[in-house]
UniProtKB/TrEMBL annotation:
Residues 4-166 form the Glycosyltransferase 2-like domain. This is Glycosyltransferase family 2 protein. The lineage of its organism: Bacteria, Bacillati, Cyanobacteriota, Cyanophyceae, Spirulinales. PANTHER family: RFBJ PROTEIN, UNDECAPRENYL-PHOSPHATE 4-DEOXY-4-FORMAMIDO-L-ARABINOSE TRANSFERASE-RELATED. Pfam families: Glycos_transf_2 (PF00535).
Length: 228
């Protein structure tokens, strides 16, 4: 069974080559699709000169549209039976793809969330208030979806391809996470959660999500759960 790895990428010149190397070393047969969201720091030049020839597709957005828009583009291009999201930083480990896709391979799940707050795998200690915010957003989302996640905001989400390609994703930025959670819950998908490692980075190292995205996530939780 082929796994499509969707890598949204914006201004990741310092990590993109390492991420691709790590994905190619993963123990799963991967289709690698990179969506560059109009990077301005030299990432595009690295993609064109070093990476295009060793991955399946690199798609370039002519203007910056956000992570959700990049994922929308990548999902549409995927051909694997399972689709997973891989951020273009070094926070998540591609060696854990087998953990993520095992419930789908066994026919037990339609969607799998990789939880940073479950299990005994290593976690870099970074921001306390980010952890509080993530848990608050997960709690609020769970209250409206009536599913029992521990980490709604995780990057690592794996889907049966027919599921993710059947959904119309509207959010262009980090609102993708609460939107997709609400929509797979409304579809009555069978959702599993597995514990994953997390090698978080600081803002100095390139982390992009901020407090404004947290407030927008609250809006998205209500919007996509309460509106038809």
């Amino acid at each position: 069974m082929k796994l499509s790895v969707i890598i949204p990428c914006y201004n990741e010149v310092g990590t993109i080559s390492q991420v691709i190397e790590a994905v190619k070393k993963s123990p799963v047969d991967c289709e690698i699709i990179i969506v560059d969201d109009c990077s301005t720091d030299g990432t595009r030049q690295v993609l064109e000169s070093q990476i295009e020839s060793i991955v399946d597709q690199v798609i370039y957005h002519p203007r910056n549209r956000g992570k959700g828009a990049a994922l929308r583009t990548g999902f549409a291009a995927a051909t694997g039976e399972i689709v997973i999201v891989q951020d273009a930083d070094l926070e998540y480990d591609p060696q854990e793809y087998p953990l993520m896709i095992e419930p789908i391979l066994k026919g037990k799940a339609d969607v799998v969330f990789g939880s940073r707050f479950q299990g005994g795998r290593p976690h870099r200690v970074v921001y306390f208030w980010h952890m509080v915010g993530n848990k608050f957003l997960t709690l609020l989302s769970n209250m409206l979806t009536n599913i029992n996640l521990t980490d709604m905001e995780t990057c690592y989400k794996a889907f049966r391809r027919e599921i993710i390609q059947s959904l119309r994703i509207q959010e262009n930025r980090f609102g993708f996470e609460p939107e997709i959670t609400a929509k797979v819950a409304k579809l009555n998908c069978i959702i599993y959660e597995v514990g994953i490692s997390y090698y978080g980075r600081t803002y100095k190292e390139g982390k992009k999500i901020g407090w404004k995205d947290g407030f927008w996530a609250i809006f998205c939780i209500f919007k996509y759960n309460l509106l038809p």
